[in-house]
Amino acid sequence: MLSKPIVYHIPVCPFSQRLEILLTLRGQKDAVEFRVVDITKPRDPELLAKTRGTTALPVLETPDGTILKESLVILRFLDEVLEGPALRRSDPTEHAIESMLIAKEGPFTMAGYLYVMNQDRAGRDDHNKKLLALYRDINDFLAYHAPQGPWLFECFGLAEAVFAPMFKRFWFLDYYEGFELPEGKEYDRVREWRRACLDHPATAQVSEEEIVKLYYDYALGAGNGALPKGRSVSSFAFSPAWQDRPWPPRNKYDHMASDAELGLAG
Question: What domain range is 172 assigned to?
Answer without folding.
Answer: 92-203
